[in-house]
Design goal:
CATH class of the largest domain: Alpha Beta
CATH architecture of the largest domain: 3-Layer(aba) Sandwich
Number of domains: 4
Oligomer: single chain
Largest sheet: 8 strands, mixed
Length: 451
Amino acid sequence: MTSPARRAALDALAQVRRRGGYVAPLVERAAASRSLSPSDHALAVLLAKGVTRTRGTLDDTVGRFTRLERLEPHVLDVLRLGAFELLFLRTAPHAAVDEAVSAVKRFRPQAASLVNAVLRRLAQEADSFPWGDPATDPDALARASGAPRWLVDALTADLGPTAARETLAALGAEPPLYGRANALVGEPATILAALTAEGVATEPAPPDGLAFRALDAAAFARSTALARDHVFVCDAAAQYAALQAASDAARTIVEIGAGRGTKTLVVLGALRMRRASVRVVAVEPNAWRARVLEQRLAAAGVESLAVVVADVRDVPSGDLVPESADVVFVDAPCTGSGTLRRHPEAVWRVVPDDVGRLSALQSEMLEAASVYVREGGLLVYSTCSVFTAENGDVVRGFLASPGGSSFFVEPLDPVPPDAWNRFVTTEGFFRSWPSVDGPDGHFVARLRKSG
């Protein structure tokens, strides 16, 4: 009999394959439907996320012993799962092979001998995986990380070898869970005390006193505070990026790419703590996300809010606000290369062409957004990418353009915590990268308009 954890993982993998969805909620649903024990639940999540994250490496490996194009999708799922256990979890060969053979017999008994033969041959070579020295061989480093070779090369070129290896190591580790007290609905100390009273263990985290790290993800997910949006999930570096738009001088803020309003809550919460009032114009091209944003902010008591469902590039100049804004915050769509560990399916979905395509879009958005900044006002540009082409290159290109000629780089405010000084570039930008026990990769630049 196939173990319940592996059956749940295979069900989730099949759904990801058929629907192109996100593996995390799918495996949680598959595990919950089987009422798995905590240990089996954790194993199902580990297997489903791990196979999804390393899919390309697993296919290359399995393809050494059989022709992938001849395999039924379910059979390939089983082989991927068995290969992941052998290569990345170092499961005992007899256990990994037996479980895989048992799993394939459930729906394609005649494939059992193939699965048995392929995985036994792979087991003979598994001890020497990744078949090279990751310290000197980029191909071996890519295999050991379960990442595409192009991604290894791009990270190394943009971050340098040390930070690139930190980022790749973080791919295979469960990321820290950061949250923030919603200062719009109550005093942060009271909110955090209520969270503790629910049995959710937390510890302080950068970038400020409203941020925390949840030490028990399951307890946090069940908490009433989270359900009521009294606290919300937001990476620590993402919070820092948003805080760059929380200017005390702001009376009107335009947020471009506002999404579901998470960074909006960060900005408005920080201003509420300083007793500052502000009018927000949130621009989001996706109607569903815009509706969620409006509902969240209404529930938090935000009244001076206008939500515009539009692409900022398509809005006639000057139509967003009747006068120039004090702050324009551009949270640009990107490859998400700084958050890949939270989205395992994206590791092999993102391709090199995406970087160039998105950097062109980002440049257009920054140019379009800049017209709404008043003289002396602030333009904040942010992504969740670590690639220079989407970050520093976009800002430099804008500053060199006619539309950006009146802007200059302003120092970060607030300054980053001391532990994050390594994320400040020589040009004064903030660019973090993932590490096993640290924040995700986020970029932010503050640009002031002369006046």
